[in-house]
Fold this sequence. Notes:
Blueprint: E1 8-9, H1 14-20, E2 27-28, E3 37-44, E4 47-48, E5 53-54, E6 57-62, E7 67-73, E8 76-82, E9 86-90, E10 96-100, E11 104-111, H2 113-123, E12 134-138, H3 140-155, H4 161-178, H5 195-207, H6 215-221, H7 226-237, H8 241-259, H9 264-270, H10 276-287, H11 291-298
Parallel strand pairs: 1-5
Antiparallel strand pairs: 2-3, 3-11, 4-10, 6-9, 6-11, 7-8, 7-10, 9-12
Helix pairs in contact: 2-4, 3-4
Amino acid sequence: MPQNDSPIIDLAKEEDVLKILPCQAVYSSRNAGWKGIQLLHNSLPAWESIEHSYTEHVVDISDTQIAKLERVLENKRQETSISTGEVAIIPAYTPHKLTCNQASDCTFLIINPSVIARVAYESTDPDKVELVPHFDKLDPLIYQIGSALKNILQTNPQGSSFYAESMVTALAAHLLQYYSAQKAVVQNFRGGITKYKLQQAIDYIHQNLAEDISLEALAQHVEMSQYHFSRLFKEATGLAPYQFVMKCRVERAKELILHSQLNIAEIAYLVGFNSQSNFTQNFKRFTGVTPKQYTANIK
Length: 299
């Protein structure tokens, strides 16, 4: 635990952020409706924080090519030069202090401890849920997850909650595997997903394409944990649940283009996209052409 006079910081509160950082985040997921995970992207001058701790687990990802810093975690000190893609793991309520002698960019992934506990219960020995502090080191998977979350937050913030839910489940499993007190061995879920449950999930997706489908709702519908559902659904279909939903929305849109007189904006709304630009981006990803080009080709 931190010293008695060290503040405990809730990064969801702007006033708390300014207790340890010299400025507010460049952008964040505060208004994106994410559950279990939040993101803050920071562009900071040279600075030094006071000792503090966080109410939630924090993954600090470097977005700077080279930066010299000094980090203190649980009274252990490290002076190092970090580069893009290096990450530090700061578990909840761990005493922490940071000094950086130059301007730098970084991304905080803020994970609710209940997510770690849930994934541990579903996939490993629950007694191994305690994360341990780790100084900065390269972790390509965490960097990739952080980059993917930043991208969707910038391109489609209001439609990003399902994607974020999928990412936090994968991130929690990775943290348990490599950053817990004892390396967690993920248990095998025998038998895969049954054809009945798979069809239940697919039917639910088709029936709710116009709605904001969540990973939590999908998993509950087939009475599976989010962790096992995500993994086994991808094994069965070749696509993660989020990707499968996007593909179904594009397929429905193609049908509406062929058989209705609706314009592109109306079709985008009817199949569950919250903006025409997001619809166009996903349509091109799955078909290779924009909706406008597709419409021209069939006429």
